[in-house]
Automatic annotation (TrEMBL):
PROSITE patterns noted in UniProt: GST_NTER
Span of domain GST N-terminal: 1-76
Superkingdom of origin: Bacteria
Gene source species: Parasphingorhabdus marina DSM 22363
Keywords of the record: Transferase
Annotated CDD domains: GST_C_family, GST_N_family
Pfam entry (one): GST_N_3
Organism ancestry: Bacteria, Pseudomonadati, Pseudomonadota, Alphaproteobacteria, Sphingomonadales
InterPro entries named among the record's database cross-references: Glutathione-S-Trfase_C_sf, Glutathione_S-Trfase_N, GST_Omega/HSP26, Thioredoxin-like_sf
GO molecular function, one term: transferase activity
One cellular-component annotation, GO: cytoplasm
Protein's name in the database: Glutathione S-transferase
Amino acid sequence: MKVYGSRISYYTGKLEAYLRYKNIAYTALPTPYDKAEMLKEKVGAVQMPIVDDDGKWMSDTTPIIMHLETIHPDNPVLPQDPVVGFMAHLIEDYGDEWLWRSAMYYRWWYDYDRQLASNVLTDELTGHVKMPRWMRQRMIIRRQVRHYVKRDGVTDTTRQHIEQSYHNALAGMTAMLENRPFLLGNAPSLADYGMMGPMFRHYGQDPTPQEIMRNTAPAVFEWVARMWHAKNTHKPEFVTQVPDDAEPLLKEICETHLVQLAANAAAFAEDTERFDMTVQGCDYRDIAVSQYRVWCLEELRRRFNLLSPAQQDSVKNLLPHGQADILWNADVPAQSGFNSDNHLPFGKAINVFEGGLP
Ligand SMILES: N[C@@H](CCC(=O)N[C@@H](CS)C(=O)NCC(=O)O)C(=O)O
């Protein structure tokens, strides 16, 4: 299996951690941007990671992991209890889609972080561009700062809240990791893999957030290494009910990620391209609408609907926050029109933002 991505990419790190745990052999390679057209042909969108499994091309880490689980069913990463399983999907989605903004912000806002990341990406990804190295590095910095900082809603008004989001994620995880080695048991689950995206290759490696993690959340710092070294030599024992210590993280997810999913879906339904939202009292303006994230909400609703009425009640009791309503109340439509034939991880995927950038 060839995994095309980057040594510092969010979702590549998430997938690599999973493949290592499952003992699935792979070779990590840089995304061949000079072959962008071929990649688009194979998987619809150029994003990281893209997998070539002996001629079978796959993309999008969430469906990739769910697919690989069917081929490698030993030591599953999805907890057996349906309510715990639903929460694992919810936590994964929060790690994938909410923490992304703050992870990109720390990397491209602070000078040390920006210098380090742009040096790596210049050498990994732009070798084919016929320009002096300093110019390629400057192009990368410009692109990332323009799109992932300015165009994704980072302003003097939102910066503090974006940093607070990171601190809240660390605190929520610490509460859980004080009681067990992984978020939902003695082995990594889908929830852990979702949190590995931001926590490993961004917060855990970029100088500014890494220092914060070391100093304020050493249990998370230790967990990152534990995840990377996890071996599937023992049968996973996951919790059979959602533990009380998950409460702060679940509350944070409702107040942040679900607010964004709801505002995004409403804007998509109205066919607008950008929207405003207020998250925990902080006003975000001019955020790019994402069709992909409408699909994320659709998926969460689909999974909720698969639960029995009693299990649905348990989920509702565990998420007693108004914002959680979006998971079971269809007043806000979630019709992405994407992946309705369930073809993923094969065939055409889409970028989180149309055209690849917010
Ligand atoms: N939902 C996708 C997201 C993949 C993704 O957005 N990856 C980022 C980098 S880690 C990317 O390729 N961004 C596009 C760009 O910056 O051009 C997944 O889970 O694989």
